[in-house]
Amino acid sequence: MRIVNMIMGVILTLLGVFSIANAGLTFISMAFPIGVILTAIGITECISYRSRYDDEEDRHWVLIDGLTTFILGIVVLTGQLAADIAVPVVFGMWSMVAGIRYLVIITHVDIKEEKNLDFYWTVVVSVCNFVVGLYTFFNSSLFNLSVLMMLGILFVIQGISVIKVGFDTTYRKPDLIKTKEELVAEAERKAEEARAEAKIAVKKARRAKAAIKEAEEIKVTYDIFNEPVVPPEELLRKSADGEEEAGPEDEAGDEKQEN
Questions:
Q1: What is the DSSP string of 239-253?
Q2: Per residue, what are the HEC states of 73-124?
Q3: Which of 84, 98, 209, 234 has its CA 20 to 30 A from that of 57?
Q4: pLDDT for 188-219, tens place per residue?
Q5: Cα–Cα distance measured from residue 207 to residue 48, given in angstroms and rounded to the nearest whole number
Q6: Which pLDDT band, with edges at 50, 70 and 90, does 53 fall under?
């Protein structure tokens, strides 16, 4: 499925380039190939998400992306997008949702530890998806691009995203055909990942303990307002009692100093 995903991403990118080069055509003339390609990409992503074992959360985002693309392809094939006015809005919303998904993925990344090339790629693609998708709502007021021109730009960005999905899809051999060296290497890799996760867990535990200690030492507003109020008469009485108790001790101390 890894190679199939990358091929589908290349096809979608080429479709975007073709749409940009033939921006004068109508959407109806290109509706069938667009619908077929989107449906195929959606099915491919829905199947390939099962191959993404490394990140449990990321695989669900791939499944959501595949379902969204599949539904959009079916809508195009059934002829529900016949008006040129509605086409940019629907595809723009599709692109915006994809950009928001990638932005959500970024929020779950530890920037200090995982700020690598993949992180920057995700940022660039998510921003491009969101900005281009948002632009489709204001196209008539700004540059007034043709429908296929806008769709071509969206397809190029989404095609690059699908290629990256295929690149990130991991291939796992069945255990029955693995060699002893491969099994040992896989076990060592899992042990290394477990050690890295343990280090992160220790750091989080230390931060949690420090936060608990700090919270216990802080005097919150609720405690301040609920402290018992001591009347002034009781404060004076306690002060007088303290002076009376301290009197004999003070006199004894003075006698010792005189001696």
A1: HHHHHHHHHHHHHHH
A2: HHHHHCCCCCCCCHHHHHHHHHHHHHHHHHHHHHHCCCHHHHCCHHHHHHHH
A3: 209
A4: 877 887 888 788 888 888 888 888 877 776 65
A5: 38
A6: very low
